[in-house]
Amino acid sequence: MAGEKRPAAPAEESLFVGPNEGSSSFSGINCASAAEKAAKRQKGPDAPDLAAPHKEFIRALIGKGTKREEFLTYKDEITYWSDHFKGLVASVEDSPDFVIQYPDTTPEAFGLFQRWMLSKSIKDHADKLPPNGHMVRLFVLGIDIGTPEVANAAIRGLFQAGWNGDNLPDQYSYIYHNTRRGSPLRKLLVDQIIRLVPQEDFERALTRSKTRVEIPPQLIIDIAIAQSKLLPNMRANRYVLKVGDYEVSEREVREQQTRTVRGTEAGNSSEGSGQRNPDDI
After folding, report:
1. Lowest-pLDDT choice from 26-30, 97-101, 221-225, 257-261
2. Would the pTM of this model clear 0.90, i.e. be above it?
3. Residue 114 lies in a domain
4. N or C, which end of the chain is more exposed by having fewer CB within 10 Å?
5. Angle at the Cα of 37 (from 122 to 179), degrees rounded to 5?
6. Residue 267, domain member (yes or no)
7. What is the spatial distance between Cα 212 and Cα 230, in angstroms, rounded to a whole number?
């Protein structure tokens, strides 16, 4: 962990904090090809045109229990950007209500997805990023629905925000319950903890949570492994974090899909039990 406070990451693609460019403690991802593919998809001949008449809206019930909210969303948009939602829409097209239900995320995360579909940005009208917790859940949603562009929008937002001061233990637990080993979100969390966060700030974050939350054992292991890889370079003045090292491709989204492998890595298992904690959204 870093020994001094550093500012949040700038909007640029890299944040200098170490010796060798691209020297992330985890293997990098060729984000250029992922970004190019996303741009082509946005401009493809089948991409919905917001200037064209949209004849159909879909009602979407998002979340569960008292936290469930109803959204109206363009059918053309949501079925174009997510095969998962395309399947859900197809399953209710003959029903009189024409309502889809998706309990496995929060209304805030789905709202960001909807904002992204319409503007290709998750920032609000004042150019402000959402809270980190919402972006974390947006990343998980992007993986679950098979839309790497959405997951990468969340990663870029988290990279720009820097995570400093907003990473409570309940977020650590959420990340490790809802992602698989090797997830770019885990990699970003670990790299920023060991390279950017002063040790006293990390210790304070572990003790200031309002509710008692168990720190995922795998997080401690990942921190130790990543820290050991930095030891040979301790005399170097700075390292670099590159946002491209944490972006995902379509192939990696398929590999990282977590819908059937959720659950217990924060406890006893390293890969999940297949059941999400109903309170873990």
Report:
1. 26-30
2. no
3. yes
4. N
5. 60
6. no
7. 31
Measured distance CA(69)–CA(2) in Å, rounded: 41
Could you tell me the CATH number of the domain that includes residue 162? 3.30.710.10
* Domain presence at residue 279: no
Q: How many domains would you assign to the chain? A: 1
What's the pLDDT at 39?
A: 58
Which domain range does residue 48 map to? 14-256
Cα–Cα distances in angstroms (integers) from residue 18 to residues 70, 155, 156, 185, in the given order:
46, 20, 20, 20
Query: Which two three-digit tokens encode residue 107?
Result: 């209304």
Q: Which two tokens stand for residue 174?
A: 């959420």
- Cβ 154 vs Cβ 196: under 8 Å: no
Residue 142 pLDDT: 97
Report yes or no on 273 lying in a domain. no
Nearest to 281 by CA among 137, 79, 116, 100: 137
